[in-house]
Amino acid sequence: MTMEQLIDLRSDTVTLPTEAMRDAMHAAEVGDAMRGDDPTMNRLELLAAEKIRKEAAIFVPSGTMGNLVCLMAHTRPGDEVIFEADAHAYYYELGGFAAVAGLAARLVRGSYGVMAPEDIEAAIRPASPYFPPPRLLCLENTHNRGFGNAIRPEEIEAMAAAARRHGLAVHLDGARIFNAAIALGVDVGEFARHVDSVQFCLSKGLSAPVGSIVAGSHAFIERARLVRKLLGGDMRQSGVLAAAGIVALNDMIERLAEDHRTAAWLAQGLQAVPRLKVQLPPLPTNMVFSDTTQLGMDAAEFLNRMRGLGVLCTSQGPDRVRMVTHRHISAADVDRAVAAAKQVAGV
Q1: Other CB atoms closer than 10 Å to residue 93's CB: what's the count?
Q2: Is 56 helix (H, G, I), strand (E, B) or coil?
Q3: Using CB atoms within 10 A as the burial measure, which of 6, 140, 144, 261 is most buried?
Q4: CA distance 112 to 210
Q5: What dihedral angle (degrees, nearest 10) is formed by the CA atoms of 220, 223, 224, 230?
Q6: 194 and 86 in one domain?
Q7: What is the pTM for the complete model shown?
């Protein structure tokens, strides 16, 4: 079975650029972006800052680099960052905060990615010759390991306020921030106004082939540019990539609602599979998680059997399966995926 025949629910990172993106990339006017001479990149960065309601923005090759750029621009080696215990920047980014930035991590267990403000404050230790100085709170929205939960602006505000009472800056890993905005029916700036920096991806549900955005104040972005250079993230005629990002921000945000509807249809179908426990957050987006424990198999076996039936998905731990909808997944694909799950379950 070829990749074209498979239903790929592994992630929204598998989205392909639209024809409009390909046309824009082909026609892009380019220059040396590192020197500020690429007009298409300059347009993307201005548009991104406007969309996220921040003063300035820069393009980075990946969300992982974007988060690391922000952590390093806010801190110095030896400082401490407070993460939600399952945060992507802590859990999935190869420990770059420690290996590259030289930062210590302090973890706070939240509920679907939302930390109680009093727990954040309790984690902020006083100045001491024994503790690394706390400098930054890192938030995430939507929260990947929180079952794709969309976190409300007032929850972001409360967590950020707790950090600021102790002089900490606040970074938001908003890889799928537009999914949160669509799910809640609010302007994306309602999240960003409570934090000092934001990273968001162009290459997930928005379907651009490459890239993420880092946004913040003018002063912060000047620091971020230096860190991006240090990490090897400066590029030359990168307007060919920026052109796709412009299409993503202008044309692809509102359609994320379709992915949420498809995910809801998928969740409803999987709930009818005996012994497969669907796990939904308070505010679902485009992710559906299931627990395979009662099927008598682990997630690896479930994934292998699903692949044999033409459906790709991923695991998050020994018994948790994740399926992510995106613009290449139709209602008919969902029906096929549910039928495959039923077959795996022996229905």
Answers
A1: 20
A2: strand
A3: 140
A4: 28
A5: -170
A6: yes
A7: 0.96
Residue 196: other Cβ atoms inside 10 A: 22
Q: With 80 as the cut, is the pLDDT of residue 1 above it?
A: no
Residue closest to 180 by CA, chosen among 153, 202, 204: 153
Rounded to whole angstroms, the Cα distance separating 278 from 321 reads 9
Q: Phi/psi zone of residue 172: left (φ > 0), alpha (ψ -120 to 50 degrees), beta?
A: beta
> Which residue among 223, 251, 279 closes a domain?
251
Alpha-carbon distances of 52 from 3, 46, 49, 78, 133, rounded to whole Å: 35, 10, 5, 30, 30
Boundary-marking domain end, from 219, 251, 283: 251
Element (H, E) at 135: strand 134-140
Same domain as 315, residue 194? no
pLDDT in tens, 73-111: 999 999 999 999 999 999 999 999 999 999 999 999 999
Please answer whether residues 234 and 38 qualify as being in contact, where contact means their C-beta atoms are separated by less than 8 angstroms: no
- For the chain, what's the residue count? 347
Nearest to 88 by CA among 233, 204, 206, 193: 204
pLDDT tens digit string along 2-61? Answer: 666 899 999 999 999 999 999 999 999 999 999 999 999 999 999 999 999 999 999 999
| Residues 243, 268 share a domain | no
Kind plus residue range of the DSSP H or E element containing 111: none
Terminal alpha carbon distance of the chain: 24
